[in-house]
Fold each of these.
Amino acid sequence: MVNDVEPILRPGRHGLVAMVRASSGDDGEHELARALAALHPREQQLALTLAPLRKAEWILGRTALRQALRGQDLACDLPLLRDDRGAPSVPTTAAASLSHKGRWAAALAAPRQAARSIGVDLEHAAPSRYDISARVLTDRELRQLESLDERARGLAVTLRFSAKEAVYKAIDPWLRRYVGFREVEVELDAQGEGRAHAVDPRLASELAGCTLELTWAQVEEHWLCTALVERR
Ligand SMILES: CC(C)(COP(=O)(O)OP(=O)(O)OC[C@H]1O[C@@H](n2cnc3c(N)ncnc32)[C@H](O)[C@@H]1OP(=O)(O)O)[C@@H](O)C(=O)NCCC(=O)NCCS
């Protein structure tokens, strides 16, 4: 499906999201082989050094990234490798981020603006197997979810996990340091939008003068979150 079917394209507040997926089984292996052949030779070279699952993620991620850049008229012939922090390297005219989950990948791309940075994340829209809430949520966020039943709470936790990973990908290019999940709080509304703010004092001072905006949606069986950090 990666090459044979158009990607899912979702224009949004933070840029264009392109989502691709591979089928399971032998069909999926053929799709991945064709998608690999369509990558830049240096992306192919890197793919061939990776273990099978990671290789599939890499192929899907780079395929989605090229689709998102193309959809924003930012296509380029350069290899889209990774920078020293692990973020995707893209042309200087572009801002981009990507995520993969299983046989799916999503990439977000937008024209580069110096005061803006973006992030995207994809997670299963399902409660996680183990309760990760105490690691991911602040005490205030935990209290906000107290009244939900077990399944709704589990879904709300994985959604917030995804939103925070999108935030991390947006802020890391500026901060260039690990930021813990409990250093940030997110507020998500029912219309698919939201905001994030720093609760950790060091992070709050690093992000002084910045706004952190979020979008979220359920796309088939996944949460899709995007984040925009903007320095005013
Ligand atoms: C880096 C991290 C966010 C990746 O998330 P993940 O769920 O493991 O994996 P995803 O598939 O969603 O994303 C992987 C992609 O993120 C991108 N990425 C990796 N490091 C990155 C960074 N420092 N900045 C921006 N993007 C990064 C890469 O494109 C990578 O895919 P690729 O290697 O195939 O190119 C995660 O591993 C991590 O370290 N999180 C801890 C910090 C955090 O999220 N804090 C939240 C509070 S702000």
Amino acid sequence: MTDPVRLLKADRDSARNAGDPWADLCVVASISPSGEPRSRVLVLRDLDDQLALFFNASSPKSEEFKQSESLSILLYLHAVKVQYRLTAAFTEVDPNVVAESWKLRPLVPRKLDWLYATRPQSSSVPSREALLDAIDRIPETTTAPSTARGYILVPTEIERLDLDQPNGIHDRRRYKRLDDDWHEAVLIP
Ligand SMILES: Cc1cc2nc3c(=O)[nH]c(=O)nc-3n(C[C@H](O)[C@H](O)[C@H](O)COP(=O)(O)O)c2cc1C
């Protein structure tokens, strides 16, 4: 039986080798506390053999992620003409792993993560100048704030749409995880 997680990894590797900038990105959709849909681009990280997202708990997405037991994740790998739609449960990355990985972040994202302690991510500021000034005042550190978060994704459903078919009929398959095994269904594209 095809393992769609391995398939996804192989497609991302091919896309990365072909210089596809989306190979390391995804769109994560969630539901706001008032039930509205929300989406944003996040880096899709490989953590050992698992997929992970890193973000700051001060951001609105942090509350939104808790509104349901799964996230909806979209990838389009243009270089290989393949779309993936994932439904994934999630568990927190060990805070020690988050803290180690956080040290490798570039300076500006590190400073921003500390700024969020007093000004939450996605909140408004009086002006861009005020923002730049506030960032300037943040001391340089490699100690992660307690709001640095990582989620390991545990996909329960993976849909792959392969546009690259010589006869023009897209190859669409859905994989559902049942009893530790993946079950495949061919879908009408
Ligand atoms: C290419 C790209 C990569 C991004 N990667 C991340 C990321 O890994 N983590 C993150 O929190 N935001 C990332 N962002 C910013 C998010 O899209 C978003 O603007 C931000 O997280 C605030 O979202 P929120 O208001 O829904 O919390 C990225 C944006 C782009 C365009």
